[in-house]
Amino acid sequence: MSIKTYFEMTEEKVNVLIVGSGPAGYTAAIYAARAGLNPVLYQGGQPGGQLTITNDVENYPGYPDGINGPQMMVDFQKQAERFGTDVRFGLATKVDFSGYPHKVIIDDKHEITANAVIISTGASAKWLGLESEQRLNGMGVSACAVCDGFFYKGQDVVVVGAGDTAAEEATYLSKLCNKVTLLVRRDEMRASQIMQNRVMKAPNIEILWNTETEEVLGKDEVEGVRVANNVTGEKTDIKATGFFVAIGHKPNTEIFKDFLNLNEAGYIQTIPGTSKTNIEGVFASGDAQDFVYRQAVTAAGTGCMAALDAERFLAQKESEETEENEVAQQAK
Fold it and tell me: pTM of the full predicted structure?
């Protein structure tokens, strides 16, 4: 047998391929493995997904004392592996869903042919790109008010953004926090009128128009935010213990756009009530298809759905092949 050189594509056939980890991917793996489907899971560019940058998770059932986000994903992975999931490092870089079985390229060098594919590539929060923002991520900087707002009960926080996401985050936080300062870059918001009305009616939300974030203040945790008025140039330091970036999310679905139906924001469209996509045998779960809830528990739920849908699909395929073989035998 000749040894393949580094630039040659290696090939492999698997039954169920799960692309991406996080609550959706690992839950799909647990269900698929327990069903005897021999799943192979590639963790993607951020093994464990967005929870790996979340310090404390207190709203996931089964953890009465809360849990550290990265540790939670370690627990999920261990449970998936316990039932036989083959968990691997690697990033899906290309797919071909034009025929069946489906093909997925890992790291531009390994071609996998799969009978069923479960996509759980998630979505990534959009950030401002500040060094201080990244340094204090998880130390007072967050991109999810529903996830982390409880930790700032009775405190002062800052939200940056002007769309529906920012309006929703600010309104949610206003019910928990002492004061919410909303930073808007222009002299108007992009949010829908109903969302703007909710912000305007909240007595403890202050909107700073024409305002840019220059720096998140604090050494080991957020202590405030330095902002600048982009009309006058005046700079101000705002005292706050939490800084919420609410400028949207980007689903990690770019490699699927030539084959799967995506909405205008790039999220994978599934048949309502299922995880099925427009391609038979390809299923989507988690934040790659959910632009409404974006919670760990809902992601896990759709991961379960995807595994069950895949199991039924493969059973139907096997039944059809058996019938075809029987007809062929009778024809002889």
Answer: 0.81
